[in-house]
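Quick check before the chapter quiz. The format below is the same one you will see on the exam, so make sure you can read both the input and the output lines.
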Amino acid sequence: MKQITIAVMMLFSLSVLAQTNGDLKTHYEAYYKQMKKQGDVQGIINAITHLNILDPSVERQDTLAYLYLSEGKYMQALNTIGVDKNATDSDMNVEVKALSLKNLNQPKLALEHYEILFTRSPNVYLAYEMADMKIQINDLAGAKTNIEYGLANVKDDMKRAFYETQQPYETSMKAALLCLKGLLTFTEDKAANIDASIKLMNDALAIDPNFNLAKVSRQALESQKAQQAAATTKN
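Here is the expected output.
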């Protein structure tokens, strides 16, 4: 009799729990819709977090990580989905890992995921980002390959944003690639390639005379060239 009573109580508890979970899910689904309507991103994050606990899904997890990324919470995004490479990861999942790691100044790890994105859907924008990071980690051959791909496939209407000034600005993607090629060329051989690097900066500025990064880079290269000349004369 005692065993029957325990079994009945357990069944009753499971029934109540199922009902409670169902009620909670309904509540957080309504809460999610309201937060979305109000444009409250943190509220949306809270709602999806609760829904994912009540009814876990890869789609919710990926969406949650993407929302963290959009809010600049890169570590929280990675804590949600991890940093490991998985062949079954969605494009959104891989993009979140790539961008979060890049923004956390982890170019080597970020590149692992950028390579996956590029394999799945190669494009000029990815090629630029990859080349930029490869220069940072001294993978100059890899950077050269990405820049050559970019220049071979860039279109005149493509733009890229830059943020090194107080006021962000856009420039021609072709000009951006030429500027990056100039930096790569200089990095390959700082003594022998300085004139070639300056020419590439001039090529970029011919496309967009207001391209600030190319202006600053050209000035730095010209200053370096003057120092080299002075050192040669002195010797």
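If your answer matched, good. Residues 156-235 form one domain.
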